[in-house]
């Protein structure tokens, strides 16, 4: 199996994503293939394999055991959840751009540097087989938003663009999952009754310096979307 060398996403990032999906799908439950085996499987260099594995070790998904190899980590579930999990789950869906503009920052962000006055707002509708599934709202600092609009926002995976092209490093996030009734506009865009409650996620994404890179809010149709979490207990908690 070869990685896509024509893809703008670096090879080590492609390999990281493949390995992580295989782990979360249960393909590897204990030890993963050796460096040499991964090099042969994906026709890549040793440095590409090492960078991909190192990323998963840093994220707590893998752990190295001296003299034995690299194993799937049995860490608590909160260390398994990817910061971009909800967007990753919708990355293969169609995208319709609803809004892209400068706007006053939400009130609860106005005390945060780069969000005191205006911010950049991107709103997109996600569809599966032409059926609306979710509305995603992204708020960015003005300078970052002005860079993002240079890309095709009906095709772009925002987190891939931020990391691979704009060299933004995501380090930490806070996420809240809840539910709420839709506004009339949201109900119309999602083609649902305004009596149907939506699954909602709110997320604050930070870089290593603690700067807020993105405030995100996703509105998901509960009849078209669900959350799947796989939890493993590391040790006896009783």
From TrEMBL:
SUPFAM superfamilies: Chorismate lyase-like, Winged helix' DNA-binding domain
Keyword vocabulary terms for this entry: DNA-binding, Transcription, Transcription regulation
GO molecular function, one term: DNA binding
Species of the source: Scopulibacillus darangshiensis
Full protein name: GntR family transcriptional regulator
InterPro entries: Bact_HTH_transcr_reg (IPR050679), Chorismate_lyase_/UTRA_dom_sf (IPR028978), Tscrpt_reg_HTH_GntR (IPR000524), UTRA (IPR011663), WH-like_DNA-bd_sf (IPR036388), WH_DNA-bd_sf (IPR036390)
Domain HTH gntR-type per the UniProt entry, residue ranges: 9-75
SMART domains cross-referenced by the UniProt entry: HTH_GNTR (SM00345), UTRA (SM00866)
GO BP term, pick one: negative regulation of DNA-templated transcription
Gene3D superfamilies linked to this entry: Chorismate lyase-like, Winged helix-like DNA-binding domain superfamily/Winged helix DNA-binding domain
Top-rank lineage group of the source organism: Bacteria
A Pfam short name: GntR
